[in-house]
Amino acid sequence: xxxxxxLAVVLVVSQGAGSPSPAxxxxxxxxxxxxLSGLAFTPSELELMLPGVIADLASYERLRAxxxxxxxxxxxxxxxxxAGVSADPWLPPERQLRLPDVRRPDxxxxxxxxxxxxxxxxxxxxxVSCEELLELHLTRLRALDETLHCVIxxxxxRARAQARSLDAELAAGRWRGPLHGIPWGAKDLLAVRGAPTxxxxxxxxxxxxxxxxxxxxxxxAAGAVLIAKLSLGALAWGDVWFGGKTRNxxxxxxxxxxxxxxPAAATAAGGVVFAIGxxxxxxxxxxxxxxxxxGLRPSFGRVPRTGAMTLCxxxxxxxxxxxxxxxxxxxFDAIVGPDGDDLSVLDLPWRLPLDVDVSGWKxxxxxxxxxxxAEHAAVLDELRALGVELVPIELPDAPIExxxxxLSVEAATAFDELTRSGRDDLLVRQIARAWPNVFRVARLVxxxxxxxxxxxxxxxxxxxxxxxxxxxxxxxxxxxxxxxGMTNLTGHPAVVMPCGVxxxxxxxxxxxxxxxxxxxxxxxxxxxWQRSTTHHRGQPMR
Length: 542
Fold this sequence. Notes:
This protein has a single domain (83-398, 457-537), classed as Alpha-Beta Complex (Amidase signature (AS) enzymes).
C-alpha cells in the first residue's frame, strides 16, 4: 500500500479551533501530495489510492481522540547503542574532593563569583550560613533581572524553607556534600511542584505541574537550593519569551542567545552559582558561548528528563551551566544516572574526575577550524603544553541540516495540540524560523523521508565513531564545521568554555567534544585546560 507514505495529514494544513472542515479529498489532492515525496502517480494509481487515504484520515481522527500525555515517548526510540557503539566509559582514579582552606570575606558580595568548593568550605565550616548565601543571591538576581530579563518566577518561599533546614542539618553535624546550601536556578521547562512551569510560552504561562522534575528532586537531595525558574526562549528556541528578551550580561544590547537564556545570563553574572539548562540543537552551547559560562551537554541517555518539557524525544538533553568545569562536574555528579522513568537513560559507571593527568592523551582537531582566530589556535598550544598529543581528524561529510527534519517532526508531534487549537498564534515570534511555522511545515514531511533520515542518523553515529579513531576527545571552535549539529544528532557530549574576548568586550568560546558516555574523561581534559587559563574568571555587571 502506498498511502501510509505521509505523516498524519500531509494533504491539508491543520485546522485551528473553529476553522471550517476541509473539503473532501480527491485525486488532485493525492497528486499534489505525491510531489512531496518526489513521486508521480498515474491516474489509475491515484484512483486506487483514494479510498485507502480517506480511510486513513478516519483512523487519524480516532487516534487524536485518545488522550496522549505531553511526555509520552514514541515506541521508536533513539539510542547510539543501536549503531553498534560500546558503552564502556573511562573511570578516573578514585580520589576525595578536597575543599579549600578559606575564610569568610569582609564583604559577603565577594562570594558572588566564588566556585562551589569555596562556597562549600564556608558553608560546611558554618562561617557563612545557607540563609545568608541564599539572600545574597536573591538580592543579586533581582537586581540583574531588571536589565537581563532572565527570571520567569522566583521560588523564594521554597528556598528559604530549604535554607533553614539545611542550616539546621549543618548545626547537627550533617553535611550532604558540596552542593549543600548552594543557590541554583532551573530553566523553566523543569517542573517544580507548586510553581508555574511556563516553558517560556504565553499559552502555558499559567501552567502548574504537580510534581518535581527528577533533576530538581536529585538536586534537592544533594542540598542545592532552588531560588528561581529562569527564562528560556519560547518552547526552547532562542532568547525571546513572553516576558521579553533575555540579555547578555556582557553587553545588554545583545540577546543572551538560547534557548537556555536565563541559565546562561544569570550564572555568568553571579545571580546563581549554577543552573540546569537543556539542549536539543545548541541550547547549552550557544548561550554559554555568548554569555561566557561553562556548559556541559552530556551524552544522550546520561541524565533523566522526567518532568522536563519534551521538544524532541531523541535529542533532548539536560546539563549544567556553571562558571568552571570543576563546578559542572560536581553538578553532573548529582544528576547523572537512570531513574526508571526516562527509559533512554543508561545505567553506566561514572566517577568524579579530580586532579587527572592528561599528558599522553590523544585529542583530535580539524586544522582548518583554527585558522580564523588566534585565541582558538592558542588553545591548541595550551593543550600541547599539558602534554596532549594533537591528532588531525576529518569529521564525516553528512547533510546535517537535512537530517534535522527529525527534530522538526518530533517537535511538531510534541506540540500537535498547540497547532490544532490555534493557540500557537499566542507565541511572540511569528516568523518563518520560529516554532509556529516550523510545526506547520513539519506536518507535511512524508513518513518515509522521516524514517530515511533516522536510518542515516544511525549511519552518522557509526561514521563519526570511525572518524574519531584513537582520539579520546576533540577540540573545535563551537560553531566551526559540522560538530554542533552532528553531535546533537549522534548524542555525543560536549563542554563549552570561554577562551577569549572580542573587541567589544564580549566573550567567545571553545568546545571540547567527547566520546559517547565518556563525560569523566571529557571533563578531566576540559578542566586541565581551563585550569591553565583565566578566561572563565570574568565578572560581568560587577
